[in-house]
Fold this sequence. Notes:
- The chain folds into 2 domains: 17-67, no CATH class; 107-304, TIM Barrel (Alpha-Beta Barrel), CATH 3.20.20.
- It has helices spanning 21-34, 55-58, 119-130, 140-145, 147-155, 179-197, 214-217, 243-253, 284-299; strands spanning 13-15, 69-71, 107-115, 135-138, 159-162, 203-204, 224-225, 230-231, 263-267, 303-304.
- It is α/β, with parallel strands linked by helices and 311 residues long.
- The longest helix is centred in the middle third of the chain and has 19 residues, at 179-197.
- The protein starts with 12 loop residues before the first strand and ends in a 7-residue tail after the last strand.
- The strands form 3 sheets. Strands 3, 4, 5, 8, 9 and 10 form a 6-stranded parallel sheet that branches.
- The structure holds zinc ion.
- Residues 113-114, 163, 167, 207, 271 line the site of zinc ion (ZN).
- Zinc ion binds next to strand 3.
Amino acid sequence: xxxLFSRGTMEPVRIRRPAGLGLWGILLAVILLSGCALQRPxxxxxxxxxxPATIASAHARPTSATPSTTVPAPSAPTPTRxxxxxxxxxxxxxxxxxxxxxxxxxxxxxxxxxxxxxxxRDYVGILDHYGIHATFFETGAHAKASPDIVxxxxxxxxxxxxxxxxxxxxxxxxxxxxxxYLRDQxxxxxxxxxxxxxxxxxxxxxxxGFRTDVLAAAPGLRMTAALWSVDSEDWKQxxxxxxxxxxxxxxxxxxxxxxxxxxxxxxSTKASHEPESLVSSxxxxxxxxxxxxxxxxxxxxxxxxxxxxxx
Length: 311
Ligand SMILES: [Zn+2]
């Protein structure tokens, strides 16, 4: 659970019936005299108007005649990152690149770049199955094209982060990356993602892991720049699912070399601009590999976290 994005309690407020007529009378008198604001049923009826329960009915199975009235607490957030009534602001950004997962003990952060993409629907089902969450670095262009997938990920509690708008490397931009260029890329992507999730975007991963001017641009937008420490190299997979390709991804993604806090890089789809023969957009092998990657880290005592420290 993140101290930043506390999902809060979903325990509803129950209005219990008074135990006896004497207490009931006192309660009514208090209401009439003070006009206090008790929790009311959703239909706006008076708080509780039915007579108190008898001893006999107190032991009876509840019926429609003797319900307790349940209303949701007005301020209770939903259990997802998207439902907070008051979006939290990002914490103070780290001064350097983050390359290790947060949290005490052994922690691992699974991260997926370049999405949203079709494989995310499979990823989120697998993450749900294991009861864990991951961080998704999205490009603004892909988010604009597939907003439903961003909403899906956010509604399942995944952390949504920035991966620039157009995923151009420094050599693909006239004059290279500049502070103004990166600010524009990050700011536009943040606006797109925040509009979809209702959450501030607090982490950014530069395309290709290039560092030029990133630490000058990100903190000014209150974002922490994050890289990775374990590379699945799943962008090298062929355009079909094979045992060899899946095994390679599992082996690469679990090559943590004794790290206590690895950040694992995988991909949702492809956002770079190379031809398919050089960089594959196929992710079927990553989908098949993911449960094995999760089970490896779990069996080696790691706790899964998102980059904001949430479990
Ligand atoms: Zn990328």
